[in-house]
Automatic annotation (TrEMBL):
Keyword hit for Glycoprotein: no
TM ranges: 60-79, 91-108, 114-136, 148-172, 184-205, 212-229, 241-262
GO cellular component term, pick one: membrane
Topology in membrane: Multi-pass membrane protein
Main location: membrane
Stated name of the protein: Tryptophan-rich sensory protein
Subcellular location as annotated: Membrane
Length: 274
């Protein structure tokens, strides 16, 4: 076991304090305490009915679970015995950066810049992808820290992956780009197919780390399902998009299960040959 250094202690305190500020700022900025809700900001460009790819309003309740996980992560990584944990050393600053970017995204949307929000959420997705890669490549250490980190980052990355696609669609609609020659339905189906492909990519890359990829699949399936449900009722009904969203949700849900089982079976076969 490595020795905890002064740098480790500084990181632990900074991440804990930064997480408190970021989560509180995000909650206030999102309208949780009476301010302007995100759905009403930027002229309603990110509302549940703005585009065919907008998730219905209940989908956003997943943020409560993500914020809870991030809060628990911040506390767990700050415990004295976790100072020298190699996985936490590798990801804690990146997780804090993701929280600050999320708060920044809310601020940009509240300022009315849909284009700016696309840039910020793109960077946020990239940061979470870095965390994902590191969690897959670095072996589990302590049980509590590993499980909390994996589950939280998995849910966070899965949801942000779907939210990024919806955010881009909202920007294009707000910018008046139109249907780009194919029509809103065709483009929506293409984007949903891309989401399904992304969920498979996550599952294949992280097949040895089910504690990360299963939450990713759950969060993506949650968001995609609510896109589908949003297209079955209300002002933006589109049965084709709804069907595509439900199929994509099923793929996102099954992909990590299939790849994890296949990976374990492969390891077991190798063991019998040794």
């Amino acid at each position: 076991m490595e020795t905890t250094t002064t740098r480790d202690r500084v990181r632990q305190v900074a991440v804990l304090l930064g997480a408190v500020v970021a989560i509180a700022g995000a909650a206030v900025g999102s309208g949780a305490f009476g301010g302007q809700p995100i759905a009403e900001a930027a002229g309603g460009a990110l509302s549940a009915t703005a585009t065919p790819l907008a998730p219905d309003s209940p989908a956003f309740s997943i943020w409560s679970l993500i914020y809870l996980g991030l809060g628990v992560f911040a506390v767990v990584q700050a415990l004295p015995r976790q100072g020298a944990d190699p996985r936490l050393r590798a990801v804690s600053w990146w997780v804090l950066a993701s929280m600050l970017l999320n708060a920044l995204w809310i601020g940009v949307v509240q300022a009315g810049s849909v284009g700016g929000s696309v840039v910020v959420i793109g960077v946020l997705l990239a940061v979470l992808a870095v965390v994902f890669v590191r969690l897959v490549r670095i072996a589990h250490t302590g049980l509590a820290a590993s499980v909390v980190t994996d589950l939280t980052v998995g849910l966070y990355l899965g949801w942000v992956s779907v939210a990024t696609l919806a955010n881009i669609a909202a920007f294009l609609a707000d910018a008046g780009v139109g249907d780009l020659g194919l029509g809103a339905t065709a483009w929506s189906v293409i984007v949903l197919a891309a989401a399904a492909a992304l969920s498979i990519a996550y599952a294949v890359f992280g097949r040895t780390r089910p504690t990360v990829i299963v939450p990713i699949g759950l969060a993506m399936a949650w968001g995609l399902t609510w896109i589908g449900l949003g297209r079955t009722t209300g002002p933006v009904v589109d049965e084709t998009v709804a069907a595509a969203a439900f199929v994509a949700a099923g793929i996102a849900l099954l992909a990590p299960v299939v790849t994890s089982i296949a990976s374990r079976a492969r390891v077991a076969r190798r063991g019998t040959l040794v």
